[in-house]
Amino acid sequence: MGNRKSSALSREILEDLKVNTKYSEAELCAWYAAFLKECPSGRISTEQFEGIYASFFPDADPSAYARHVFRSFDLNADGTLDFKEYIIALHLTSTGKTAHKLEWAFALYDVDGNGTISKNEVQEIVRAIFNMIPVEDQIKLPEDENTPEKRADKIWGFFQKNDSDKIAEGEFIQGVMDNKEILRLIQFDEPKKIQAKLKEKKQ
């Protein structure tokens, strides 16, 4: 894919991204030039990606969440993000359609990639999210969701599942679309702000 070191973005990848993200050719070419300047190899490693998150959360521990986000966008599971994967990530977390965002959210929570979500996986992602929330803000959360365990129980309860049950992608997406409360509980807004800042850096 977009892993070549050439300063020119291939026409195939450019056209594909224009169709799937609605970004303009000028935007994509400008971001590609900036991407190569920051990542001369044409790829972002897990460590570099974690570093981006760490720079925005100096008083928290975003490493676990960053690793999960990275995994969800590493489409070919090679341990790096190329330009195409990076732009798709930027698009989905900022201006993507709701259905596409929920497909990504499912991939984020499907930690082992087996096509279903377990309660343990929900707990793992929610715990990673809590690591990014300052303690003073955690205290302000409602009593029934002020710990990772409570929030995971609340999410699982909305789906009316037993602890050993699984949730498939279609059920997950429909459940979230039918209940905005689930959407609020599963997401974390700060990464969207990070993507906005990264977008500004490339303009």
Features of this protein?
mainly alpha, disordered N terminus, 12 helices, two-stranded antiparallel sheet, single chain
What is the element layout, followed by pairings?
Elements: H1 11-21, H2 25-38, E1 43-45, H3 46-56, H4 63-73, E2 80-82, H5 83-92, H6 98-109, E3 116-118, H7 119-130, H8 135-138, H9 148-158, E4 166-168, H10 169-178, H11 180-186, H12 190-201
Antiparallel strand pairs: 1-2, 3-4
Describe the structure.
This protein has 203 residues and is mainly alpha-helical. It is 62% helix and 6% strand. The protein is built from 12 helices and 4 strands; from the N terminus they run ααβααβααβαααβααα. It has helices at residues 11-21, 25-38, 46-56, 63-73, 83-92, 98-109, 119-130, 135-138, 148-158, 169-178, 180-186, 190-201, and strands spanning 43-45, 80-82, 116-118, 166-168. The strands form 2 sheets. Strands 1-2 form a two-stranded antiparallel ribbon. A two-stranded antiparallel ribbon has the order 3-4. Helix 3 crosses helix 4 (63-73). The longest helix has 14 residues, at 25-38. The radius of gyration is 18 Å and the shape is globular. The protein starts with 10 loop residues before the first helix and ends with a helix. The relative contact order is 0.13. The model is unreliable at 1-6 (pLDDT under 50).
Give me the side-by-side strand order of the main sheet.
1-2
Instruction: Using the CA coordinates, give the radius of gyration.
Output: 18 Å
Assign a percent range to the helix content. 55-70%
Overall morphology: globular
What class do helices, strands and sheet pairing give?
Answer: mainly alpha
Order of helices and strands: HHEHHEHHEHHHEHHH
Q: How far do the termini sit from each other?
A: 23 Å
Average pLDDT figure:
84
**Low-confidence regions:** 1-6
